[in-house]
Predict the 3D structure of the following.
Amino acid sequence: MGPPHVQEVPAVTTTPQAVRRASPRTRRPATPVAPDPTTGLLPQAEPVRLLDPDGTPLPPRADLPAPPVETLREMYRRMVVGRRFDAQSTALTKQGRLAVYPSSRGQEACQVGAVLALRDDDWVFPTYRESMALTARGIDPVEVLTLLRGDWHCGYDPTVVRTAPQCTPLATQCVHAAGLAYGESYQGRDTVALAFIGDGATSEGDFHEGLNFAAVFKAPVVYFVQNNKYAISVPLSRQTAAPSLAYKGVGYGVPSEQVDGNDPVAVLAVLTRAVAHARAGHGPYLVEAHTYRMEAHTNADDASRYRDPDEVEAWRDRDPVARLEAYLRSRGELDDAAVAQVAAEAEAYAADLRERMHAQPVVDPLSLFNHVYAEPTPQLVEQREMVRAELAADAEGDA
């Protein structure tokens, strides 16, 4: 039995013209392009720089106008005085006058630039490394060093100088700054709070909580990260895998920028824009400054155990004080006489600090119990009376 008969179907040849005639064109609505949620939030790919390391100005930028030259001259003066204060404070630790001192040498542009970007009635929330920033803000250096000498938790009145106590726990000041800024805004004031923070503290929960709260409630706060490359001995590579710390703002809807932290002109320009953004009611702003601490973490640290000397020398060539001095000299705004005058002012400042810090402070042991509670607890009263009795007994014995 043979195979069944299969009728052959002739092949149909279809030309493109025939398809177009047979199938009328269907117009479908274009799919709308969703807006990029990161627009206006991401920092520039490279840190903002307005001066080369040798002080040569780069092409001007319309979005970041250079600060007035009068402000830059004042910035130079405060940076030179601040560096001398920093060196004197380091020496005081070797003389036993300070228990510890965290140097900010190499970060002068960040320390002074942040202060100059603010008004006197704005608030500063410092870490333990911001002693130079506080003296640049006009706070008595002896009062600044009171914490590090061990006399009091804070040597100045925060409400008078609009500066929170220096914060030793990492990142807790981020939440404090957000709360104060929101409170000021809620009461109709245009106060801005600026919180200093180190690169290591961006790994702490309070940093993220502060950013999130500030973003949700549009608190006028600037978070200023001084990325000096090491959290004590831990390098940045062990802190984050992000392209830079400035990218951490996008997750909270916070606009961010990164800047060359050893370029004084760029630091002041970027922070001025960030403060204006916050003051205008647009919410928080995150700035990361790429800088370097030239000294050890504190006088108790041996930085040679984890840093290559060649790395330190490379950053020495990016000295922010020398960079600004070279720029101002090239503009004819600074000469040898002016430089010598500022240096003499810095020496006088250090001499006055040295003399006053050598005076032994008179401390009342009973002051330990002051300012612990608004209303002392029974336990605190009992402890105070016990100390009072011991002091009285000692005095009797000496008599």
About this structure: The beta strands are 123-125, 193-198, 221-227, 230-231, 234-235, 256-260, 285-290. The radius of gyration is 30 Å. The first helix runs from residue 16 to 22. The chain is about 40% helix and 10% strand.
